[in-house]
## 1
Amino acid sequence: MRKGYTGLLAAALIGAILTGCAGASGSDGHGAGSQEEQPLKEITFVLDWTPNTNHTGLYVAREKGYFRDAGLEVTIVQPPENGAEVLAASGKAQFAMSFQDSLAPAFSGENKLPVTAVAAVIQHNTSGIISRKGEGMELLLRSMGPKWIAVDEITALEDCAAMEQCSYCGVRFLATAHGWSVEDLHRRPVYRRLLQTGMFQTAVVLQPDQTYTVEELHTG
């Protein structure tokens, strides 16, 4: 147990050192130069993808010497095929960047990894998940907590049941369905229940001639 979490304890400690060193250097403009230069601590940071704008802060800090000022020699590497969190869990990297949907299974289940989240790089998750409709919605709800889910071609009662369950948790839907009209959808068991719940407020009805009408939906 202790060995498996060594990397996490080190990562937490390093985070504290970064904050402490920044404050100490600011209190004395030339204090660092008056002390004997200490060897830099080597840190490996794994990206979640090829370098992009989400990683700007890392490269700026490295180029401007902010890491060295904090006593760190940071090596930035791209992730292996099995993911950045796996490399961090193995102890070959101290820090890693990953996607929210990849972290969910890493934190729970039978094969959870000895990693923990310490910071968010961006305020909102930019990932997207494509899944089978009925069986995938509840998993999507638990792992990502989306505000909106897009569903293409509702075709089964199982799809409708999953959508209704998600709606109880505040999820809103953008969905497509096949029918001659809104009245036709009300006559079909697959769609009748969804329309009665009030889950949808507006319908955009596409016509064969590529025109469309917008209709407000009412329960009942």
## 2
Amino acid sequence: MEIKKILSIAGSDSSGGAGIQADLKTITSYKFYGMTAITAITAQNTMGVQASSLITPNLIEAGIIYGKKIESLEEMKEAAEFLYNKYKVAFLIKGGHLKDSKDDVLCGREGLFVIEGKNIDNKNTHGTGCTLSSALACELAKGKSLYDALVAAKKYLSGAIAYGFDIGRGRGPLYHMYNLSDKNGN
């Protein structure tokens, strides 16, 4: 049996809800083989990020790279286009921290796209960015275009949030394996 292999390069989250841990859970739920490289530094040189086809910052991270605070969908579009043109690599600016929506903005060779997201009533959203990135890698490994992969990955992420997993007392993780079980945990 041929199994797709996904390499995640990210930091570790000891709570298990984000970082490499969330990546491995997401990759496993897609029935792919997860591999990891744990790092606290970026793999960059003077020419930009090495061997990347997509960079997936959240609003705060994108603002740091862009050099300006990003607080609206219009600012996300401007930043994504600027960053794509500057670094010659696709950028997905994740809007999970937006107040009124959870829209993401993708800018790459195919153009500029807004992928709509909805607010889901669940405080347990720790690791959503890592989960979206890993789901996106899995969808790309299936041979989908970047846009189609992102739409499918957002659907997976929404399902993992909507499942309503609740562990601990704080802002907990999503349920990465929701697509492998029913609501009763079977």
## 3
Amino acid sequence: MTLNKLAKIMLFFNSYSFFFILIILKTWANKGMELLIKIIFSLLFIFIIIISLIFTLIIVIQAKANVDTYLKIKKIEDSQVNILGYIFSYIVPFIDLDLSNIYELLIMAILIYIIGYYYIKSNLFHLNPTLNMCSFKISRIVTEDDKTIIIIYKNNEINKNSKLKTKIISKNIHVGVIDSGD
């Protein structure tokens, strides 16, 4: 199963799940917004959150069940530090938007589109705070045949000599588990 464009979009929306929850809360705190608009915003974002979470879980479950390849790690870079930069650069600035202002909503939509386009085209799936909060780690590794890939795995500790069973979900993105030699 190679990720198609829809799957990549769902992973992007998944990375914004907590932001969408904040938008829902902010919508309900906005006293100047009509009830119908609040309900529509809330339902839209809840729908996006649920669909993206379900899609992400399906990707991870299918990947764990169907191994494509075995990898031996030569070098590993933990990508978790980049997540804080992602949150502060791409999520926090949206918190101050006035959701009752149509122009600010348009600005938010355009920015989310631009960030999503870059996220998907650049395969920045390792920048996903939602996966991180669900006990997944995402690291950039170099294999013994000098291929650089992004690996998504449950919070097992992997190191330079680990062997991984992986499922390829995109060109350089794998979901994996440590090969225990069973």
